[in-house]
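From the methods appendix. Each design record in this collection lists the tokenized structure first, followed by the designed amino acid sequence. Records were kept in a plain field format so they could be parsed without special tools. The example shown here is representative of the layout used throughout.

RECORD:
FOLD TOKENS (701 positions):
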């Protein structure tokens, strides 16, 4: 019987895999004006980064950096698949982002900080000022005894003090682990524990949607959570949003908590030599969700990562030192690390840092900022594009900014939303790069070269230079381009931006990204180690890739990666809950949102109160960003005869689709009960295929 169930599941997968309906979109060409000024105009660039030139083609990336000592080996594969790039060199990321620009660009703004309250002035920070502030903070960190290799957790909002702290860490070789400011104290605490940080750096409060919230409260929860998990935090460094004034209600803990700006007085004017560090030393950790309940710390190294984000900032974002570049994302995610801080600064850009919500106080806000600051390059996520389009479709017309290029990142973008971005935001002038990549990959994987390739709405394009994607089916056979079939997109070769490992978990690194398609675990040849990205994709006949979304249990909510298992374990912290299943639901603005199904323990009455407690638990364990759209208390979960919860059936119900044949389930009757509960008695479902990520939801264990 178990066998029959298995077979049934497999047929469903392959049907879902081929059910990729998509009409080919028309091409859009970059303007002559854009092409004439672009950093990368060589039409043969992709061939120059062909597999036959690998890995030496990436020397060009290393050359964009300033080295204390040159590297000896481009790629060391001796510990495959733990790749080491540019081995033997000595380098410092902070030096490359700050010091080396002082002569030529010292007085130019490195950052322009835009506070959320519209009556507060912009704050421009020149490279020279950045240099002195970073030095003082580095001196302070050194004064606390921190040194190369130590980890420090940051839980900071979008303020200049965040990149200043990151760069100060990088100057010393201290590994920073910034946790997205919107995550809860508990989420921060478990990341502190995993990274083994003894120092937490935070800020008292910050503006979000018109409110100056108490962020310090999260630090107390984080420290407590870390302690419960076995990690002591000795010091909590608290930046003040308004220096000299404490904007939070939560008291400071004597002996543990210190105001950074007070402590900094001891370090005024101090300089700290940028430490020459080995190329392959770790630069930072970035935690991300995966299939299990435990987030994984993607470890990125200094030289490989920095060279990769520098080169892609130059060639793909097309940043010139004269540009005012604005990536409207949060530094707490990989996009912000790579393309607000490290990449743009390494190319001597002026990078805009906006504190708040894009639609605060109205949907014209981003365009007012762009006009006032003369932003020439704009970078954001589909979720923001959809929201701005919904709330203010005509707003961009009111402002006289002029973008030469724009980027979209983080989720698949619907061609409709793409066309609005192109016509209204870009005023039919700006080129668009749709950049597909992951926390784990450091920088772009799939994108057009903006001055060379035509754009196609909804498709990211071919692989970036030196990135050679391939789509495999479940059996490891290549899915050819133009076949209309979807499969698992992998990258054939290593590249400098790839993560080095999962912090403290080498096995999970190999298992998650390589095990499925590696045939010889002992091989030292990179050709044997295609990197599995975790996304479903199709490749059109023209070679462009269209990304269909995650194939694992990750839900991409408004561009934030959330692990289903993490959400489910949060639900299970509510004592009344016996079982929980979380599924993705299509959402007009956020792309996907989670819906929660729970079964309560015997004797517990289903009630609004229980639902509310589930929501509260999710907000406490993960953060408000993970708040589910709805919570359904069901009599039982639909299960296979082997007892596995059929999340896919629940996903079909939540997305108003036909549930298909459920007769092989252990409890088929419950499906109809749940369906009626969710969709109503006379609900009309559509036979339309589910999007690939939802269709395959719950397949990967
Ligand atoms: C999705 C964000 C379609 C994808 C940089 C990936 C995209 C996940 C795109 C990684 C894009 C990112 N088109 N999907 N241009 N960019 N994704 O780790 O599913 O937060 O696996 O990194 O976002 O999310 P992460």
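DESIGN:
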């Amino acid at each position: 019987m178990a066998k029959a169930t298995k077979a049934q599941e497999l047929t469903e997968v392959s049907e879902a895999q081929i059910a990729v309906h998509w009409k080919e979109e028309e091409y859009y060409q970059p303007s002559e004006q854009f092409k004439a000024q672009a950093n990368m105009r060589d039409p043969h660039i992709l061939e120059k980064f062909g597999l036959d030139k690998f890995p030496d083609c990436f020397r060009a990336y290393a050359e964009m950096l300033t080295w204390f000592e040159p590297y000896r080996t481009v790629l060391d594969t001796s510990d495959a698949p733990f790749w080491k790039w540019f081995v033997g060199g000595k380098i410092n990321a902070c030096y490359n982002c700050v010091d080396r620009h002082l002569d030529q660009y010292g007085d130019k703004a490195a950052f322009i900080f835009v506070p959320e309250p519209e009556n507060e002035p912009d704050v421009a920070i020149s490279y020279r000022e950045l240099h002195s502030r970073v030095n003082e903070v580095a001196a302070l960190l050194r004064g606390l005894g921190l040194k190369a290799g130590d980890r420090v957790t940051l839980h900071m909002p979008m303020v200049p003090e965040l990149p200043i702290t990151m760069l100060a860490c990088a100057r010393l070789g201290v590994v920073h682990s910034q946790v997205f400011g919107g995550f809860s104290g508990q989420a921060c605490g478990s990341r502190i524990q995993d990274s083994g940080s003894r120092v937490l750096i935070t800020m008292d409060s910050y503006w979000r949607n018109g409110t100056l919230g108490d962020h310090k409260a999260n630090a107390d929860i984080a420290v407590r959570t870390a302690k419960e998990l076995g990690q002591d935090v000795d010091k909590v460094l608290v930046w003040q949003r308004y220096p000299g004034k404490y904007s939070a209600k939560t008291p400071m803990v004597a002996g543990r908590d210190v105001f950074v700006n007070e402590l900094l007085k001891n370090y005024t004017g101090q300089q700290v030599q940028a430490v020459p560090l080995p190329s392959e030393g770790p630069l930072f950790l970035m935690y991300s969700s995966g299939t299990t309940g435990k987030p994984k710390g993607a470890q990125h190294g200094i030289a490989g990562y920095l060279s990769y984000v520098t080169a892609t900032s130059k060639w793909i974002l097309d940043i010139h030192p004269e540009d005012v570049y604005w990536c409207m994302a949060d530094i707490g995610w990989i996009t912000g690390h790579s393309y607000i801080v490290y990449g743009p600064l390494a190319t001597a850009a002026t990078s805009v840092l906006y504190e708040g919500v894009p639609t605060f106080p109205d949907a014209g806000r981003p365009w007012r900022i762009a006009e006032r600051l003369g932003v020439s390059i704009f970078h954001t996520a589909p979720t923001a594009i959809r929201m701005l389009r919904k709330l203010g479709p005509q707003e961009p017309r009111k402002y006289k900014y002029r973008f030469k290029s724009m980027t979209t990142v983080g989720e698949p973008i619907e061609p409709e939303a793409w066309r609005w971005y192109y016509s209204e935001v870009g005023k039919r002038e700006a080129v668009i790069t749709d950049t597909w990549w992951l926390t784990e990959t450091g920088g772009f994987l799939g994108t057009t070269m903006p001055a060379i390739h035509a754009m196609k709405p909804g498709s990211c394009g071919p692989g970036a230079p030196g990135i050679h994607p391939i789509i495999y089916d479940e059996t490891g056979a290549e899915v050819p381009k133009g076949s209309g079939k979807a499969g698992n997109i992998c990258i054939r070769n290593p590249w400098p931006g790839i993560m080095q490992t999962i912090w403290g978990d080498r096995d999970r690194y190999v298992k998650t990204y390589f095990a499925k398609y590696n045939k010889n675990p002992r091989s030292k040849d990179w050709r044997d180690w295609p990197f599995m990205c975790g996304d479903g994709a199709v490749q059109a006949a023209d070679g462009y890739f269209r990304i269909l979304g995650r194939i694992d249990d990750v839900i991409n909510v408004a561009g934030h990666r959330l692990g289903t298992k993490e959400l489910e374990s949060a639900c299970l912290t509510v004592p009344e809950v016996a079982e929980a299943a979380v599924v993705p639901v299509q959402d007009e603005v956020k792309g996907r949102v989670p819906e929660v199904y729970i079964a309560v323990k015997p004797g517990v009455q289903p009630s609004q109160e229980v639902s509310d407690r589930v929501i509260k638990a999710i907000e406490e364990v993960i953060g408000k960003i993970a708040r589910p759209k709805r919570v359904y208390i069901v009599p039982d979960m639909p299960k296979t005869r082997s007892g596995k919860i059929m999340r896919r059936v629940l996903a079909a119900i939540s997305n108003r689709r036909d549930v298909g044949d459920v007769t092989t389930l252990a409890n088929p009757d419950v499906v109809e009960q749940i369906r009626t509960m969710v969709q109503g008695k006379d609900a009309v479902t559509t036979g339309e295929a589910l999007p690939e990520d939802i269709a395959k939801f719950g397949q990967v264990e």
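APPENDIX NOTE: The first helix runs from residue 2 to 18.
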